[in-house]
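Lab notebook, bench 4. Still working through the backlog of constructs that have no structural model yet. Next entry is a single chain of 238 residues. Request: give me the structure tokens for it.
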Amino acid sequence: MDAIYAADLTKRYKDKTAVDGISFSVKEGECLALLGVNGAGKTTTIRMLSCLSEPNGGEAKIFGHSVKSEKDEVKKLVGISTQDTAVAENLTVEENLLFMTSLYLEKKDCKERTEEIIKMFHLKEVRNKKAKTLSGGWKRKLSIAMAIIGRPKVLFLDEPTLGLDVLARRELWKEIEALKSSMTIILTTHYMEEAESLSDRIAIMINGKIKAEGSLEELEKMTGQTGLENVFVNIAEQ
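Model written out:
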């Protein structure tokens, strides 16, 4: 069974089709990089797959559960870290994590799970700091940590390193790489090096449609280009 399956998935607004009948699948344990310029439909796709937005057409399933008719089941299976870092600014790192664990676990288990996450993401040095005092890198790390509190089988990372400096970005890559062994990931990013480093396969969206999909090697062969940036430009300009 595919971890993620989409067939003719469509999202229309009054004056625009944001996602135009896309079909793709992601195998369990894979990381798919979803690439495209701003407005290509990447975030809208993630919102539909995570039940934050209702499709106008087509179907998508997470481990066989429909995002249209089985939302409660889908929500148990997915975690999402959005572009806008969703943390409570006036709570400490530990308080943010404890709050999230309380949504998924019994009270007696919250402290143990919080400690697991603090250790996993190396958050010990900032655990007592309020989120509003954290650097961008620490906030992004906290956001992803909160997204996996419920042990999701599928994780959506929407531009997880947006705005971070090179060192902070590389540090977060290590955390994401470590997650790949335990969950399926869809990653959106504008950083080609990030997609090359983390993904198993790449899908390129242009104007709401998936124009190309495959491993980097397959896309290079298809376009006659070398390197993901050159591949992306070649496909985007067609």
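Notes after review: The first strand starts at residue 4 and ends at 13. The two ends are 34 Å apart (CA to CA). Flag for follow-up if needed.
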